[in-house]
Amino acid sequence: MLSTAGLLDVDDNPKSEPVQAFLEATRGEALLQLFETWKESAEFNELRQIPGLTTEGEWTNDPVHARQMILEFLSTLPGFPMDPDVNGERPWWSLDAFVEDVKQTQPDFQRPAGDYDSWYIRAGETGEFLRGFKHWDEVDGALIRFIICGPLHWLGVLDLASPRPPQAGSIPRITAFRFSQWTADILNHRAPGDFVVEDAPFTARSDARLRVPMYAPRSARYQVNRFCTWEGLQEGVYHFRLTPHSLQHASQQGLRVEQLLALLRRYCESVPPSLDTALKRWETQGSQVRIERDIVLRVRDP
């Protein structure tokens, strides 16, 4: 999707100027840009991305038409936010019931002339070819679920509901959906508002670890990531670490430590003096400098 939006090159590397403009846009503007790109993209093909399915052969499908049909089905639901009679309520809808309704009323929504035999799609676990209408739920129904629980949720159009919180590392079982507070704006080509202000500060530690909150400026988070090694996301905080390898990699991209220090001084509550000194030394001495936390043992009588 990012490639289709013109943010990545053919090697999946970020394009500097488009990425900078994207990250400096408001969250609403960025979300709308991705939605508009996804909606019209023939390259982003959900049918070939559904977990548990394997596609083979040279056959083609029309992902743009399939999306348009699913959006059209959604628009018929009571409570659709672009309906002038809607009073602001956003009822939940059963995902199973919605898929079954499409199966009963418009089963061929993505199949030219109702052809269920020419697409070579296998079940991932068994290797069985899923040909014929008897496999509608496993292919066409799965596509509807994937688009609702995937792109339409990721891009802010739908909220999802699960009967219980997912366990760590598991995929939640989605049973219901509703239109989000941003649906009307997005479908009317307007950038939605009501986002949290992105002004949370970074935290820099003397052991060269950085903590960047989710609501720190996205452009700053992207820039600091170019200097760091990624350590994960925990409770809405991105964890990074400065290492000789990450600094060397940044240097090879034409980035300088003075740019990193300027970034930290601007967005951190404070920069530990030891980290500041270590980075300046690395700039001049390179890999001879180790960035680590000092441990001092204090005793009453040495």
Automatic annotation (TrEMBL):
InterPro entries, per database record: XPB/Ssl2_N
Domain Helicase XPB/Ssl2 N-terminal, residue spans: 206-302
Name of the molecule in the record: Helicase XPB/Ssl2 N-terminal domain-containing protein
Organism: marine sediment metagenome
Lineage: unclassified sequences, metagenomes, ecological metagenomes
